[in-house]
Amino acid sequence: MSLQQEIKKRRTFGIIAHPDAGKTTLTEKLLLFGGAIQTAGAVKSNKIDMATRSDWMEIEKQRGISVATSVMGFDYRDLKINILDTPGHQDFAEDTYRTLTAVDSVIMVIDCVKGVEAQTEKLMEVCRMRNTPVLCFINKLDREGRDPFELLDEIEEKLGINVRPLSWPIGMGKNLRGVYNLYEKNLNLFEANKTKRTNDVIQIKDIHDPSLEKHIAASAARQLREDIDLIEGVYDPFDPTDYLEGNLAPVFFGSAVNNFGIRELLDCFVQIAPPPRPRETDLREIVPNEEKFTGFIFKIHANMDPRHRNRIAFVRICSGTFFRGNNYYHVRHDKSFRFSNATAFMAQQKETVDEAYPGDIVGLYDTGNLKIGDTLTEGEKGLYKGIPSFSPELFREVINLDAMKSKQMEKGLVQLMDEGVAQLFTYEMGSRKVVGTVGALQFEVLQYRLQHEYGAKVQFAPVNIHKACWISSQSQEKLDAFVKDKFRHIARDKDGKLVFMSETRAWLQMVQDNFTDITFHFISEF
Ligand code: G4P
Asked: In angstroms, what is the span from residue 71 Cα to ligand 1's centroid?
């Protein structure tokens, strides 16, 4: 098969949701419908197996969350589908943001009872930054949820994206009768645990056809007709281009736990979701079908066994063919490395891979050379853009409790930051080290891992910091003057970029007003 054909076959996407909306369940059901797994429960039980493997993972088990962002590949029809799972817990949101840089589209799960929740809004912002196409799945129809029109309005309003329903619920909760598929014009009647994959839908091309009453009660049929007439009147016909440009989210309704409405979602997804797209480096745009391999690292997964400190770096392939055993050029180190140990991810198994194509994710074993955001090529120097760090929300100072182990601590901190567990800011004055995270859980993870993997004992002390902002200016002179003026509050991030550590929101505002030549950034890439 030609490279072009391999690319056309691939659909790489992520499922995002506010915790508990049903992301894990939907992932599992997609694998089930795709034929990649045979029994329900497999995805969840995998999480628990992982948790029992080490004490560190035990922390997560206790909290009932999964830290692991895994990749699940499967074949469906003629396509190779890669699902990039994202951690459910919001303390690991940064991990999710980075995973979103490696996908070509996104399915967003929304709980029909709760509607758009805080984490969903944040994730949507990340999608918007890159114009990632988004498809919505409104889940838990078997519960008494909110009015579907109200939910659609809320998505438009809170997520700032136009919507277009492509399926429509007939009743909800106890009265759920089914969904009407507006895209394929057929009716799928509700049964709990509907596992049949095809041929279980009733073709009703015209919703006004009296045969509808053969399948649902007259009152439900009347309501459905009214709703569909309203939809056709209010929303423009679905235009896939709007979706591909990230301006319009098609919406499906269903109940993941009941296997209901999943087929509609999957079948539409495979028709409209984009194959791998061109991506920007700091030198030029690279299109997937260029012969030479390029890719970037968006995630590093630590080995859970502390005796072997090797890690798996997840590489998103952007162009050309990746061959196991080849030497590839590491742009940041300006050096070539040989990757003889490459892993592909199929369903829930890992297997050695000899070749991989744009859209695929391969895992490379690494002993500490790779970090998040690194680009690998066949010699070209361009670095892939778009893997930013976000200004963290919580800050604590690292206190070394064992002076004899400061080397180990330094090394551990650097490596854990390379993995993206948290962000390290080192003050210009006195080299104080402050760690910034999105959630409090990371401090626990850091403390635990520093001790168990590096033998370094640390404590995290509270510090009075509200925000870390990356700073820049058109004028080097003005920037130097600012740094001098605010020297006590200036730090460097892991890449040596200047950061202003503001103590309060009000003070940050004041400083922004007083230093208009300085730009304050809340994302590391600008
Ligand atoms: P997440 O990954 O987004 O955090 O959510 P997850 O799939 O773990 O689902 C969260 C809870 O919602 C689970 O219940 C799950 O069974 C339930 N759920 C998922 N889809 C549906 C649905 O369509 N209808 C209803 N009623 N519930 C749904 P749990 O009690 O936390 O776990 P479990 O013991 O049921 O597995």
From this structure: 20
